[in-house]
Design a protein that fits this description.
Rossmann fold, 2 domains, Tyrosyl-Transfer RNA Synthetase, binds adenosine-5'-diphosphate, binds tryptophan, 14 helices, three-stranded parallel sheet, 327 residues, 54% helix, two-stranded parallel ribbon
C-alpha cells in the first residue's frame, strides 16, 4: 500500500483554491484502497512567518476542521498536527547537517520570500529541511503538492538519496505527485486565488459575509442587456469549477446571449457555493464549536503516526552513532 502524505501550513483559513486545488484531490486519492494517507497541519512551518502565539492552535483547528469537513477519513488515515510530534525537529537537525548550503540558498521560495519579507530568519532558510523531515520521518512514498513545492520535493529526494548512499537504505525516497489537471482557481480580482493577494473566497464564512465576498468579484462594465464574454468572466470561471458541465453551459449561454447581468451570475455562484459546500459548512461549524472533538481527532492521529516517526529516528540515530552504548 503506497503511503501518501501532504501538509498544509496553518497560516490562514484554507480558501476555495486550497480546497479545490489541494484538499479535495488528496481526499479523493486517500479514498482509493491502495493508498494510506497522512495529512498534517504544518504549524511549525507557520512560525517562519506568523509570530503571534495567541491564535496558533485556533489556526490549526481551522485547517483540521477543513480537512474533516471536506471528507478526509481520519479514522482510516492519519490527521495530525506537526508540532504534536516534536521528534520531527530532531530529524530536522540531523538532516540540516547534510543539507548543502548552496542547495538551500538556491531555493526559489527562499529567494522569493527573502526578497519581499522584512523578517528573513534562519527558519525560512531551512524550511525545506523541516519539510524533508516531515516526509522522510513517515516513510512516505507519494507527496501531492502544488507546482510551487516541486523544488522542495527535489531537495527531499536529494537529501534522502545522499543519506542512503552513505549509510545504506535508511529513508524511503519519495515521489512528488503534481496533479496535472488541477487548474489554478482565480481569486475575486482575477489573479490566482491566494491568501497573499487577499482575493480569496472562504467557503466557511457566515452566509451574509460569503454573499458579500461573491458580490465583490470584479466584473467589467458591459451593460445588462449586452452579450458577455463568459470565458473571461471570473464569476463564470468560478461557477464552472463547482457545478456540473450542464449547469456551467447554461450560465455560459445566458451570459453570451445578453439580458443576463453579472448580478444574476453572482447570485447563481453564491447559491452554487452554498449548495456544494452545504454539508461541509455544517460539519465545519460543528467542529469549530467543539474544539475538544478536533483535539481528540488530532491526538489520535498523532498517536497513530508517532510509532512510524520513532522507528525512522531509531534507524537514523543508529547510523549516526547517537544514543548511549548498551551496558
Ligand atoms: P496560498 O497561495 O493561498 O498561500 P498555498 O501556497 O499555501 O496557498 O497552497 C496550499 C495548496 O493549495 C498548494 O497545494 C497549492 O497548489 C494549492 N492552491 C493554492 N492556491 C490555489 C489556487 N488558486 N488554485 C489551485 N490550487 C491552489
Ligand atoms: N511547504 C508546504 C506548502 O507551503 C507545506 C508542507 C510542509 C508540506 N511540509 C510538507 C507539503 C510536507 C507536503 C509535504 O504548501
Amino acid at each position: 500500500m503506497a503511503r501518501i502524505l501532504t501538509g498544509i501550513q496553518s497560516t490562514n483559513q484554507p480558501h476555495l483554491g486550497n480546497i479545490l486545488g489541494a484538499i479535495e484531490p488528496m481526499v479523493q486519492l486517500s479514498n482509493q484502497l491502495e493508498h494510506e494517507a497522512f495529512a498534517f497541519i504544518a504549524d511549525l512551518h507557520s512560525l517562519t512567518t506568523v509570530k503571534e502565539g495567541g491564535d496558533r492552535r485556533h489556526r490549526v483547528h481551522q485547517v483540521a476542521a477543513t480537512w474533516v469537513a471536506c471528507g478526509f477519513d481520519y479514522s482510516k488515515n492519519r490527521l495530525y498536527c506537526q508540532s504534536d510530534l516534536p521528534e520531527v525537529t530532531e530529524l530536522t537537525w540531523y538532516l540540516n547537517c547534510f543539507a548543502p548550503f548552496p542547495m538551500l540558498a538556491n531555493a526559489h521560495s527562499f529567494k522569493d520570500k527573502s526578497s519581499r519579507l522584512a523578517d528573513v530568519n534562519a527558519g525560512l532558510f531551512t524550511y525545506p529541511v523541516l519539510m524533508a523531515a516531515d516526509i522522510l520521518g513517515y516513510d512516505a512514498h507519494l507527496v501531492p503538492v502544488g507546482k510551487d513545492q516541486r523544488q522542495h520535493l527535489e531537495m527531499t529526494r536529494d537529501l534522502a538519496g545522499a543519506f542512503n548512499h552513505r549509510y545504506g537504505d535508511v529513508f524511503v525516497v519519495p515521489e512528488a505527485f503534481v496533479q496535472k489537471d488541477v487548474e489554478v482557481i482565480p481569486g475575486i480580482d482575477g489573479q490566482k486565488m491566494s491568501k497573499s493577494y487577499g482575493n480569496f473566497i472562504d467557503v466557511f464564512l457566515p452566509e451574509k459575509s460569503l454573499r458579500k465576498v461573491v458580490m465583490a468579484i470584479a466584473t467589467d462594465s458591459t451593460p445588462l442587456e449586452d452579450p458577455k464574454d463568459a470565458e473571461n468572466c471570473i464569476v463564470y470561471q468560478l461557477f464552472s469549477r463547482i457545478v456540473s458541465a450542464d449547469r456551467a453551459l447554461e450560465m455560459k449561454q445566458n451570459l453570451e446571449a445578453g439580458g443576463y447581468g453579472y448580478g444574476h451570475a453572482k447570485q447563481a455562484l453564491f447559491d452554487a457555493l452554498m449548495e456544494r459546500f452545504a454539508e461541509a459548512r455544517e460539519r465545519y461549524r460543528h467542529l469549530m464549536e467543539h474544539p475538544e472533538e478536533l483535539e481528540a481527532i488530532l491526538a489520535e492521529g498523532a498517536s497513530r503516526a508517532r510509532p512510524i516517526l520513532q522507528q525512522v529516528l531509531v534507524r537514523v540515530r543508529a547510523k549516526l552513532g547517537f544514543g548511549s552504548l548498551p551496558a
